[in-house]
Amino acid sequence: MKHGATNYIPENFIPGFIDFVVWGHEHECKPEADQLNNTTESDTKCTMVLQPGSSVATQLQPGEAEAKHALILTVFKRNFKLDKIPLKTVRPFILNNVLVQEILKGKSKNVTVEKALDAYLETRIKQLIRDAHDLLTGHELQPLEPLIRIRLLHQDDTGLFNPIRFSQKYVNKIANEDIVILSKVSSKRGDMGADDMDVGDIQDMVMEAEEVRPRN
Fold first, then answer.
1. What is the model's pTM?
2. Does domain 93-212 have CATH number 1.10.357.10?
3. Is the pLDDT of residue 197 over 50?
4. How far apart are CA 97 and CA 153, in angstroms?
5. Is the dihedral of CA 128, 133, 136, 142 positive or negative?
6. Distance, C-alpha 114 to centroid of its chain
7. Strand arrangement of the beta sheet that strand 147-154 belongs to
8. Band of the pLDDT at 201, cuts 50, 70, 90?
């Protein structure tokens, strides 16, 4: 999986004589084997790749919000079979990315930015908690308190609310304390509306924000 300009292995770097690759150190579980784009017109076979992902959420990022599976790979000569077993004890995790400019479009002049964001986020989080409840499997070992993360994508944090104070409302309701994260994005991407963006756009914006965030 490409995480930046250089910190990944291009598919064409994997030799064509390799039949099967298990891709490790990735968060997202992709339970179906895919064909790599590492062959030439003269090749008669292909390389298959499988990305099991992590068994629990180790970071609050997009790939971790996908369903987790245990995978059983059975190989016979040059053929293989893959059996997927959904994991039933994973803590529910839902992640949302929201553009601040979309929230403030219909804001009344008498309402502050902080109050507008607070009201919107309270409504959104209540819905996400209900959505997380639908992810419960009924297994006695599955944690009930979900992981909820909303990333506010903005160009200027002037006047934005305090995410730490806001998150205190959900103590004992949500497992993580850092429910809302502020991520600054470039003005070029900030001009895009929510309906204009796809998953790739959102992930690129998140990576840009992480790159410019000050490190301790």
1. 0.73
2. no
3. no
4. 7
5. positive
6. 26
7. 93-99, 147-154, 180-184
8. very low
